[in-house]
Amino acid sequence: MRAPFGLILAFAVLVACDLAGKLFVHELGLPVPGTVIGILILLTGLVVLRRVPANLQRVGEFLLAHLNLFYIPAGVGVMAYVALLADDLWPIVAALFASTFLAMLAAAFAFSWTAKLQGREGEGE
């Protein structure tokens, strides 16, 4: 009886951190997703504890092992709006390619800049 209660409590901690982050963002009007703030709250708690409780680790591993199930609602949403997406397919594809290219370009510049700051330019050659 004790093990299921610990797992439920660990899941409740994850949900509480998520809700606290969302409430924090809503009250302060921050332009950051509440879930990100919730993850930072959880991280702060784990740093203070200096360990990951066993039940929290088990719940986290279970959720990560079944992460693909969380994409089902998104897939259903895409299927529900397939006609709308078909009308704007080319702008969406262009935006995806452009944003991917810009993200790769930004990553390359960030890496190059970091290498210059650390004095390691040209070491990989």
From TrEMBL:
Membrane topology: Multi-pass membrane protein
InterPro entries xrefs: LrgA/CidA
Gene Ontology, cellular component aspect: plasma membrane
UniProt entry keywords in alphabetical sequence: Cell membrane, Membrane, Transmembrane, Transmembrane helix
Pfam families with a match to the protein in the record: LrgA (PF03788)
PROSITE patterns the UniProt entry points to: PROKAR_LIPOPROTEIN (PS51257)
Locations listed in the record: Cell membrane
Protein's name according to its UniProt entry: LrgA family protein
Highest classification ranks of the organism: Bacteria, Pseudomonadati, Pseudomonadota, Alphaproteobacteria, Hyphomicrobiales
